[in-house]
Amino acid sequence: MGQGLSCVADPEHGLFSAVQSGDLETVKSMLGRDSSLLHQRTAYDRQSLLHIASANGQIEILSMILDRSLNPDLLNRKKQTPLMLAAMHGKISCVKKLLDAGANVLKFDCLNGRTCLHYAAYYGHSHCLQVILSSTQSSPVAASWGYARFVNIRDGRGATPLHLAARQRRPDSVHILLDNGALVCASTGGYGYPGSTPLHLAARGGSLDCVRELLAWGADRLQSDASGRIPYSVAIKHMHGACAALLNPSSAEPLVWPSPLKFISELNQDTKVLLERAFMEANKERENNILKGTAFSPSQSHSDAGASGGISEADDSELCSICFEQVCTIEVQNCGHQMCAHCTLSLCCHNKLNPTTASITPPVCPFCRGPIARLAVAELKNSNDPDHSANDINSSKLKKSRRSRNFSEGSSSFKGLSSAIGTLGRMSGRGSGRIAADKDLMDKP
What we know:
This protein is mainly alpha-helical. The protein folds into 3 domains: 135 residues, Alpha Horseshoe (Serine Threonine Protein Phosphatase 5, Tetratricopeptide repeat), CATH 1.25.40.20; 120 residues, Ankyrin repeat-containing domain (Serine Threonine Protein Phosphatase 5, Tetratricopeptide repeat, Alpha Horseshoe), CATH 1.25.40; 159 residues, Zinc/RING finger domain, C3HC4 (zinc finger) (Herpes Virus-1), CATH 3.30.40.10. It is built from 20 helices and 3 strands. A 3-stranded antiparallel sheet has the order 2-1-3.
C-alpha cells in the first residue's frame, strides 16, 4: 500500500527532514528565503511537503502549508493524496485539517485503486474512518455521488472498505462501516475466493470479534462463495476453531441488530448505547452456550461491566413491567411507556433473516399496542434529581441489577418473552451486492 516515504534530507537544504521532524521554525525560515521550495518533491516517490507532514502527523506544518493555498490533493508517484497517507498512518488531526481544506475523498491511488476510506479501514484507524464518513455525509459528495455508494465504494480490484476491514481483523472499523450502511452480504468477484462475503474473509482471518459484528448485522452463514464454500468451511480450513463454532449452521442463530427500522437509525447516542449493550449481552449468552463443552473457552472479550452477583437495589416501581428483573431504561416516545433495554430488543430483534416472510412493519408497544416509532432514554421515576436520566445509572443501578443472574442462568427477558411476542416486529435483511476482484489477499486452494 506504499507505506514507506522517501524523506531523506536534501543535501542542500534539508527541508524534508525539517518537515518530517516537525521543525516548524526551520521550515518557515527556509520557505521565507525561497518560496519555490514549497513545491519541492522527493526524488523517487515524488512526495510533497504535504505528504510528508500528513504521514508524520505534523499538524502545525501542514496547517502552515495549506494556508499558503497549496492544493490539498497533490499526488505522489503512486497517486496517493496527503489525505490517504494521513488515514493510513492514523493521523486524525491531519485528516480533519485536510478535509476542512477541501481534500477530495473520491481520489483513487494507482496501486489498488483505493480511496482514503479504504486506507482507514485496511489499517484499522477507526477514528479516522469515522471522521471521513461524518465529513462526507454532510458534503456535496453525499448529494451528488450518494453516501451509501461512498460507504460501499469499490477499489480497483473489487473490495469495499468492509471487505478490507474484515480481512484485516479490524472489528471497530467493521462496526463503524456497518453502522453507516455497508452491505454486510456483498459478494466479491475474486477477493479471497470469487464470491466471498465479509463473513468469509473474517472467517479466513480468524477474527472472532469481526465474526460477531457481521453476524449481529445479519450476515448469512449459509451464503456460499463461487467454490461452494460457506464461511464455516473457510474457518475450518484455516483452523480457526472458535470462529467455526459460531459459524456452524447447526449452532444457534444469533440475534440480529434491527438496523433497517427507522426508529433504530434515528436513535440518539445514549439510547443506542443502552440497546447495544443489552444486545451484545444476549448474544454473549448464545456464544457461551455454543463454546461450552468445546476446546474453546467462552469469550471474555465482551464487557462484563454491567454484571454483578448482587440483587437489584432499584425500587420495584423502576423495574420493567414485562420481565420484572431489569431497570426501565427505554421509553417509547408518543405513548411514554417504559421497559428495559432487554425487553425492547426482544420486541425488535429476530433470530434469522428470511426475506420471504420478514416484515418491515415496526414493532408495537406491548402496553398500548401502538406502533413504536421512536425510542428515548427513560427518565427515572423515583430519582431525587428530576434531570437524572436512566443513562446516568449505567454505572450504578444497572451494574447492580439482576443481569448477571439472567445471563448466567438463562435470561428470561429473552427466552420467555421471545416466545410470547415471537409474532412481533420481524425484520427484512440488508441487501447484498456483487462486486469485482482483489488479488492482494487471494485464497489459494
